[in-house]
Amino acid sequence: MLEKIQVQMSVYDKLQILSDAAKYDVACTSSGVDRKGDGTGMGNCRAAGLCHSFSSDGRCICLLKILFTNECIYDCKYCINRSSNDVVRTSFTPEEVCTLTMEFYRRNYIEGLFLSSGILKSPNYTMELIYATLYRLRNVCNFQGYIHVKAIPGTDAQLLERVGFLADRMSVNLELPTAEGLRLLAPHKSRKNILAPMRMVQNRMQENKQEIVLYKNAPRFVPAGQSTQMIIGATPETDYQILNVAESLYQKFGLRRVFYSAFVAVNEDSALPARTGEGPPLLREHRLYQADWLLRFYRFEAKELLDEEHPNFNIFLDPKCNWALKHLEQFPVEVNRADYNMLLRVPGIGVKSAMRIVKARQMGNLKFEDLKNMGVVLKRALYFLTCSGKMMYRTKLDEDYITRNLLNTKERLPDTVSGITYRQLSLFDDVNYTDSGAVQILQA
Fold this sequence. Notes:
By secondary structure, the chain is an alpha/beta fold. Among the domains are: about 10-225, no CATH class; about 320-410, no CATH class. The protein has helices at about 10-20, 95-105, 125-140, 155-165, 180-185, 190-215, 240-255, 280-295, 300-305, 320-325, 340-345, 350-360, 370-375, 380, 400-410, 435-444, and strands at about 65, 110-115, 145-150, 170, 225-230, 255-260, 335, 385.
C-alpha cells in the first residue's frame, strides 16, 4: 500500500497543478448572460458575452480555468485524475480561489471564473466547498463578473439550487455519448445520475423565469443556461449516434451548448483505444461542431445530415456542403424569391447574410456583387444560386464537378498533425515569472 506524503504547497504551486489538470474540460464559453455590476463591486457581464481569447486548438482562455481539487474518488479510465493514477494531488481552499480570481481580474488577465473539480470524499462534500467558494466570491469579495461552475452528479438538488443562484452558467458533463460507454469507461457514473441534475437545472430555470416576471428583483438562477461535454473517440459511437444524442439534449433539456472534446490518450488501459501516431481526432471534433451549428442556428435535423447508411461525416467537405451536394434537386436557389429557411441551406450563406438578403431584396432585385457585399461566400454559393434566373458563371449542376471545385478552394481545416498541443495556455506564458515573483503578484 502506497503511503501518502503531504507537502505544504504555495498558492502558485497549486495553480500550476490545478490549472493544468483542467485543460481537458472544454465546456467553458462565457456568453449569453446579462449581469450588470451595480457600481459597488468588481466586474460585470454583458449580454454579448465576455471578450474571448482562444488558443490554437479552439479552447476558450479568457476565464481563470481551474479545478478546485484534482483528488477524486472515481476511477474513470480516460481521466488523468482518476483515483488509480499516481499524480501529485492538491486542493484549493475557498479563500485561495477567491484571491486568485480577484487578483487576476484586477490585472486584466481574466474576465471570469470557470471552476470544475474532482470529487473529494463525496459529491455533496465537494459541492459544499464549491458553494462556499462562490458565496465568498459574490458576498465577501463582491465579485459581479462571470462564473461558470460544474455541477457534480449525485449532489443533492437543494445544494445544486443554492450554487445555481450564485453562478451564471452551470454544466453537467455527459462524459460519453452512450450509457454503454459510461459502463465501460466510467463505471462509477451512470446516465441517470448525470441527467437528473440536468433536468433539475432546466426545471428550476423555468420556475425562475416566472419568479422574475412576478418579482423583478428576484435572484436569477443560472441566467446563462447550462451546457455539457462529450468525449469523442474514446468509444466506438458513430457521428450519427453522437449527433442524435446532442439533438435530443437540446430538445429535452434546453441546453445552450453541447461541447465535443477529441479524446486525448493520457492513460494506458486495455479498455481505451490503442495509441496511434495520428493523435486526437481533431478533424472529427471539427465536423461535429460544424454540424452542431447547423442544428442550433440553421434549422437542420440530425437525420438530414447523417443516417445509418452514411453514419460519419465527409472528411473533405463540411456538413452543409455535403448535404447540398446530396440534394442537388433542390438547387439552384433563386436568391430573389427563396424563403429564409432555404437561403440558410445554401453553402456560403450564413444567418446574418440570409437576413440581409431577405431585407435588401424588398428594395429591388439583388445581383451577385450585392451578395458579396452582404457577406456571402461566393466561392461556395455560386454553384447553388441564381440571381434573376442567371448563375454567376456557366457551371454544371453535377456532384463530381462541384465537389472538385469546392475542394480546390482549400478549406482551412484544423492541423491534425503539426502545430497542435494540448497544453492549456498559462496565465504566465507571456512573461518569465519566477515562483517567487508569481507569489509576489498574488500577494500584491
